[in-house]
Structure formats: structure tokens, C-alpha cells
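Give me C-alpha cells for this 311-residue protein.
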Amino acid sequence: MTNTALDRNAIAETDRRIRSHIRTTPVIEIDGADVGLAPGPLLLKLEHLQHSGSFKARGAFAGLLEAPVPAAGVVAASGGNHGAAVAYAAQRLGVPATVFVPAVSSPAKIARIEGYGARLVVGGERYDDARIASEAHAASTGAATLHAYDQFSTLRGQGTLGLELEGQRPDITTLLVAVGGGGLIGGLAAWYRGRIRLVAVEPETAPTLHMALAAGHPVDAPAGGIAADSLAPRRVGTLMFPLARDHVASSVLVPDDAIAEAQRQLWQACRLAVEPGGATALAALISGAYRPARDEKVAVLVCGANITMLP
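Here you go.
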């Protein structure tokens, strides 16, 4: 496998490398009426139960296990979840880690990063401020950078979620996925390659991929809203964009109140405590931003659980 490979074979090889370090997360089937939708089966892939509280552990282990780690360890910039995943993976593998997060990062995520023993640096208002600081740290120390979404190893790691989900439920025709920088949906697109309908879901306040698809290339977008600590980078990754352009069937935007309602419904119906970013994919159905046809077998990816308390 080359360092730039992003095909199904490369994802399968990454899965073999990281499999002993990650959880196989469950898929449950509920009635749509349980979460305020029309009656009918709805699948939830519970990736918020992954180590460190989000799917990000897959990409973190992929990056750490692909190549030797320098003595200076690794460095990551994150809104919170990627940082927690890198800190967790580094702790498990005995590697030094430094994580830069912006001030908007939630206390729950900051506590996780510190709890896993990483060196934490908080500064700046948004993810890009943390990214710039992390790049300066890498340049001065020789630490290896583990990018949250714009790195081949990260995309391959997130793609293992698609491999796992297809093995669990090969009948799925449509998968709703929350999007921030695009590492998750990029990895899923690399795995599925158009064999199912991938629906990108973003907050109206952070339409990063939506604007990139409209422009034909990554562009700067607004970065705010209820899910700003996980779904609000300035722009999507350059590596994932061709995959999204070619294999994402549709891109929809949801208001913050629909995200908050999706959080409440997941708690009330299933006792699933998830963060705003983790509930954003379901918000597409709750808001009506995505209306599946009758013959679609729909799954919603519940991707993050690092929350202090429910609203």
C-alpha cells in the first residue's frame, strides 16, 4: 500500500492494522416514530460508542500505526474529538502527544484530552487557530502531525467505518453523515464508491462542504453554531473533496434548533446522550432537509458523544 492509496484494498489493510485497537460499534433498528418521524424502520450506527467518544479513534490509530513515530511524538489540532482520539491512541501505544484546541472546544472534550495524558494547549477562537499553532509546534520539534481530516491515513481510518457497517448491514441504501472537515464522509465515499447514497449533513451556520460543492472546489465558509467545536472548520480538506464531488449523492443543511431537537429525541427515545455534531445527521430527517423515498433503507450515523450535559 502506498501512502496515497485511498481505495477499498487500502482501507481493508488499514482495518486489519487497527482492528485490535478499536471497537466494532453496534447498529440498532428503531421505529422512526420513536424520534418524531413517520413510522417505519430507521437504522442507527452507534459510532459515538467508539473509544474516546467518536469515530475519530479510527483515524488516530491509522495515523499512529502506519509509520514509525519520531521521538518528539505526535501533534494534532482539533475542535476536541480528534484531539481526544489522538490522546487516547497515543496513551495506548506509549507515544508522547501534544494537542492544540481552540477556546470554543467543550469542557467535556478538554477533560478527555487531559485525562488521556496528552499535553494540551488551548488558544485561539476556532479550529484553524489551533491548526496553525500545531504546525508551528511540528516545525520546531519534529513531531509528526496527525491531521484531523486532510491526511491519507486519516481518511483510510475513517473509511474502516464503511467496511464495518457494510458487513453489519449490507441492505442499507442511504447513509446520512454529519460533515465538518470531511474526513469521515471522505473515507466513507472512498469505501462505498457510489454503491449507496451518501447524504452529507451540515449546520446552516457551517456549510463548509455545501459551499465547496457549489463552487467546485474547497472555499472558506462561515464557522459557527451549536456544533462549532466539531463541525466548523474554515474549509473542507483537499484530499476528500474529489471523493465527495464524485460519490456524495446530496448535501443538505440543517438549523441549530433541529440539531438540538435531534439530541433530545435520541435521549428520550433511546437514552443516547450525544453531542450536537453527533446528532446532526438525524437532524436532516427531523427538519425535513432530507426526505427519503419509500424504498430507501436509511441509516443515520451517530458519530460523537463528548458532551457535558444535554440541553
